[in-house]
Amino acid sequence: MASPTVERAAEPATPTDTLLELDRLDVRYGGVHAVQELSIRVRPGETVVLIGANGAGKSSVINAIMGLVPAAGGQIRYLGQDITRSSPASRARAGIRISPEGRRVFAHLSIEDNILSGGYTLSKAKRDEALAWMYEAFPWLAARRKAPAGTLSGGQQQIVAIARALTASPKLLLLDEPFLGLSPVAIADTSAAIRLVQERGMAVLISEQMARPALKLADHGHVLRTGTLRRSGTVAEIRDLALSEDYL
Amino acid sequence: MNGFLQAFVNGLTLGAQYALMALGFSLIFGILGVMNFAHGAFYALGGYVAYLVDKTLGLPYALAVVAAVLMTAALGYVFELVVIERRIDDHLATIVLTLGLSLVVGASLLAIFGPRSVDFPAPLTGTLRAGGVYIPTARLMIIVVSAAAIAGVYLLLYRTRLGNALRALADDRTIALAQGIRPKVLFPLAFGLATGLAGLTGALVTPIFSLAPFVGEHVLMISFLAVILGGLGSLPGAVIASILVGLVESFVGFYIGGSWAPLMLFTAVLVLLVVRPTGLFGAKAAHV
After folding, report:
1. B171, closest residue in chain A (CA to CA)
2. Interface probe with B: pick from A120, A131, A151, most Cβ of B within 10 Å
3. Predicted pLDDT at B265
4. N or C, where is chain B less crowded by C-beta within 10 Å?
5. For the whole model, what pTM was predicted?
6. How many domains does chain B have?
7. Where do the domains of chain A lie, and which CATH numbers do they carry?
8. Residue of B nearest to A102 (CA)
9. Is A89 close to B181, i.e. CB distance below 8 A?
């Protein structure tokens, strides 16, 4: 897989150096305004973190980008194209993948089948290649490849969920609360998995309540409260506010 | 001894019939979340298509079976695509729609072929003799073809990319969507596969049992019983329970009397559901 920067060099037509852009995004559930006029962007290969307490709207942002909840207003642009009304399946095919909140591995499918399901749109050779990469990076996955994913621990399920999202070598990886409910050891493992993604040049958007481990991985961050942006900047710029938000 | 073996072979034949029906019913329920009450109608339709091709057109029986599978699969595919797809998440609507299709198919068969069962003789009439016991080749053929079909479905589900996607859809539809899997493409396929299995069953077994417009309703009811017995949503459970049900029906009919078989079956299921509400093989939330 060529890194996105190499691909971009071959396509000078791409207007800006922006991979994903949210332009005044609104998400509503009934009368509840979960996200209000949120504008952020993610550059190729960059890791961006959305920090906020429970109910700040982080998951709504992630799910709206994947297309799992509809945008009530505003625009989502990906690779310069408006994808606000695209189906989740076509967004997945365009290179956006998600590790959803609560992992949501396919509980009755084996570890191997979970990873392969992420490569539904790929050729057999590409699927096998992805599988080999995952097994090399996480040898325990290979050792337990026939185990139903529902029988794994939360930390193991998080690795499977990330592996599933990586099978198709996405350009943008969405991680919704990857550290939630994990032990310190599992947090370290998950962080290692995310670093592996970064080394491959993929862009990552993480939503997290636990600011500390997420800030260690990110370049840029945004602090959300009740669906609106409180502060944006480099990790150094937002660290203090993000950590205080952590304990709200 | 010969009687025992005969009852055993008959039980396996019944079990094979129920297994193919229960497998298709469970596939549709597991993947689409729809109870297909038209499944018995596809069984009857498969029988009549085979009857038409074999008896009226005079083509070979094997060809008649293939035609029955293709016709019922195509009808299932189109019905899902055009009708069910619009109301897929409305359980009440899909129950009414599949019941409605069942009535439409049954009434059409009634209008075309009449209420009485048609004469569709078994294609194979010989018996296999081995060590003093006789096994009718027609029943042996049904058992072998059914086993092959079940093995084929297993391989499709567990060894192919399509099967992987179908199982992912059964497990968590939203997250399957986020893998680029398109239910609008795969749901009609799954439905057509399952109704094709029902058509295959009808084409295979109606020559040795009977063929009348509403003959599928009773078979579907017993198969539904097997689905519950095996644990709703569990495919291996549905197949194993179907074979058990077939054997029980046959042995009870042989040793006690045919009219006792349904009573014994329903009592057994009732007791089982009290003792083990998830069925024999059902987990807390069983899936494909």
Report:
1. A106
2. A120
3. 87
4. N
5. 0.91
6. 1
7. 44-67+88-246 (3.40.50.300)
8. B175
9. yes
CA nearest to B158 within chain A: A113
Cα B214 to Cα B110: distance, rounded to the nearest angstrom: 8
Nearest alpha carbon to residue A159 among B253, A175, A171, A146: A175
Please answer yes or no on whether A89 and B164 come within 8 Å at the CB atom.
Answer: no
- The H-or-E segment that residue B80 falls in is helix B61-82
- A126 pLDDT above the threshold of 90: yes
By the 8 A CB rule, do A105 and A152 touch? yes
Q: Please answer whether residues B134 and B2 qualify as being in contact, where contact means their C-beta atoms are separated by less than 8 angstroms.
A: yes
- Residue A203 near residue A211, CB atoms below 8 Å: no
**Paired sense of beta strands B133-136 and B127-130, if any:** antiparallel
Q: Count A/B contacts: CB-CB distance under 8 Å.
A: 71
Helices then strands, each counted (H, E), chain A: 10, 10
Residue B41, domain member (yes or no): yes
Whether the CB-CB separation of B7 and B254 falls below 8 Å is answered with yes
Domain holding B78: CATH number?
A: 1.10.3470
Q: How far is B133 from chain A (nearest CA, A)?
A: 43
Has residue B211 got a pLDDT over 80? yes
Residue B160 lies in a domain: yes
ipTM: 0.89
Higher pLDDT, B135 or A114: A114
A68 at B interface, C-beta within 8 A: yes
- B173 contact partners, CB below 8 Å, separation of at least 6: B183
| A205 vs A216: CA distance, rounded Å | 13
* Residue indicated by tokens 């083509």: B59
- Which range of residues forms the domain containing residue B229? 2-117+131-275
Distance of CA B147 to the CA centre of its chain: 13
Q: Is residue A15 pLDDT above 70, yes or no?
A: no
B72: which residues sit within 8 A by CB, 6+ positions away? B42, B45, B46, B49, B195, B196, B198, B199, B200, B202
Q: Where are the alpha helices (DSSP H) in chain A?
A: 4-10, 58-66, 88-93, 111-117, 124-137, 139-143, 154-166, 184-199, 211-217, 235-246
Q: What is the pLDDT of residues A42-91, one digit of tens each?
A: 999 999 999 988 888 999 999 999 999 999 999 999 999 999 999 999 99
CA distance A179 to A139: 21
